[in-house]
Amino acid sequence: MKTIGLIGGMSWESTQSYYRALNEGIKAVLGGLHSAKIALYSVDFADIEALQHRGEWEQTAAILGDAALAVQNAGADFLLICTNTMHKVAPQIQARIDIPVLHIAEATANVLVADGIKRVGLLGTRFTMEQDFYKSRLQAQGMDVLIPREHERAIIHDVIYSELCLGIVDKSSKAKYLDIVSQLSANGAQAIILGCTEIALLIQQQDTDVPLYDTTAIHASQAVAAALDKIPLPGRLMTGSD
Question: Catalytic one among 15, 83, 85, 108?
């Protein structure tokens, strides 16, 4: 079994979902007392969040690059960044290490393509919804990506940071999210990507008839497959130095 490297803590609320999914995935395949081999570095999210909202992305890359080196030195065979938003600096992180990064958007796109989805709605932080670092990975595989309207993006972003990252699950916020899901579906989205690892704490498939793609579950599932040699390890992400 390969060792799965994790950079977590962004937030720890969703990192625990990763930890559970990875261990349940390994046990489902191997049975008995088997569990995942994991090297986890958990950062202080307060530091990362402040830098995000000030637009100081290179400083976040430096922090996560140090974390990635620590994970590699702990014996990890490949790396998962346990957050969608911080894949904005995935190339910079990859440039710091020799092991490959399993990219969450590419993992999700692989599943969407296999399921025949061509037009998808994307929920996440403002950074994920509005910038190209994430959407471009989906579009490269032929996806048409829809995002919510501006005021809806504000709702989604605010709920993530002021509620979900603090472990708060509010019924009125859930209703707002489901209304946005319905609107994206009415606009032609065949499915919705839960493109923030906390969103699955708020809405699940049983809440809507619109297909939901939980990026945490997808990322963890592909990591389990890679750890057990069911799929090949991904190639190293292209970086500015490649």
Answer: 83
Domains and CATH numbers, the chain: 4-103+218-227 (3.40.50.1860), 105-214 (3.40.50.1860)
35: amino acid identity, one letter:
S
* Partners of 214 in the β-ladder: 194
Rounded Cα gap, residues 120 and 98, in angstroms: 33
How many residues would you count in the chain?
242
Per residue in 185-225, pLDDT tens? 999 999 999 999 899 999 999 999 999 999 999 999 999 99
Torsion of CA 111, 113, 117, 120, to 10 degrees: 70
Candidates 128, 165, 196, 216; catalytic one: 196
Name the pLDDT band for 231 (thresholds 50, 70, 90): confident
Residue 156 near residue 124, CB atoms below 8 Å: yes
Four-point Cα dihedral 49, 147, 110, 137, nearest 10: -70
CA distance linking residue 66 with residue 73, whole number of Å = 11
**Average pLDDT in the chain:** 95
**Per-residue pLDDT, 238:** 65
Spatial CA neighbour of 212 closest among 188, 187, 186, 185: 185
128 is catalytic: no
Residue 60 annotated in active site: no
